[in-house]
Amino acid sequence: MTVAVAPVGSAAREARAIALPPPHGSRLVARFLRQRAGVLSLVIIVGLLGVAIAGETLAPYDWRAQDVLGRFGGPTTRHWLGTDELGRDIFSRILYGARFSLAIGLCAVTLSFGIGTLMGIAAGFYRRLDGLLMRLVDVMLAFPGILLAIAIVGALGPGLLSVIVAIGTTEIPGFARLNRSMVLSLREREFVVAARVIGAPDWLILGRHVLLNLVSPLLVFASLRISTTILVGATLSFLGLGIQPPIPEWGAMVSTARQYLATAPHTFVYPTLAIFVTVIAFNLLGDALRDTLDPTLRA
After folding, report:
1. pLDDT surpasses 80 at 176
2. Of the chain's two ends, which shows fewer C-beta atoms within 10 Å, N or C?
3. Are 176 and 123 contacting, i.e. CB atoms less than 8 angstroms apart?
4. When comparing pLDDT for 214 and 283, which is higher?
């Protein structure tokens, strides 16, 4: 007769700890609100999302409207950030272009998050798949990320969807390796071993004991990678491989304005500043989330 033995000592404590509910939401919110940089970055990101959704409504001018006689105009009360080489309002174009830069960052990270997480969990939990999946990841890592993205966009053709697929593909190895390393550590923990001893199925172990422990670090990593994907998307557009003019994606605006840098620097500075602020905001948010969700800092 087989007798199920309950975990003892540290295994019992860890099994009880994993069954405890996560910290109360109000405590996490309070910890996050104590971080001024994180709160400021969240306000900026929420504002950017609002601009991305309602950019055309908020913009004082149509992003396509031209005034050739007023080309290269500096900032005025009529045109807050001046006009470009065709007399188009730069402020309106930046507001409208926010949707493309944010769409690249959010959609590409979502794609890599989903595929990379599945690959990493499968490789870490089912060791027979580890070799195959990690060799695939190694092949992807053999190519510099920007070169792989350029190759994919070159094969698919320029455009928003192509940029998202290309950047999302280059980000998959990072998520896969992170998930694999965490799952390899978790699968040897006492509470997972105890769950296997009592006959818990794999889906229950993955859902209750593994995935719940991956959420916090993955959220932090994803928020940090959004800033990178926005930069890569702007780089592809700068190189002429991303979203094509006249659509006012920020990287494409910078690419067009570089030839007028000496005569009209404002056409280059403001879209560059928009990219800079967005990237810094997501980086600060990632740092704040890391400090908020770090279990070693929970009171």
Report:
1. yes
2. N
3. yes
4. 283
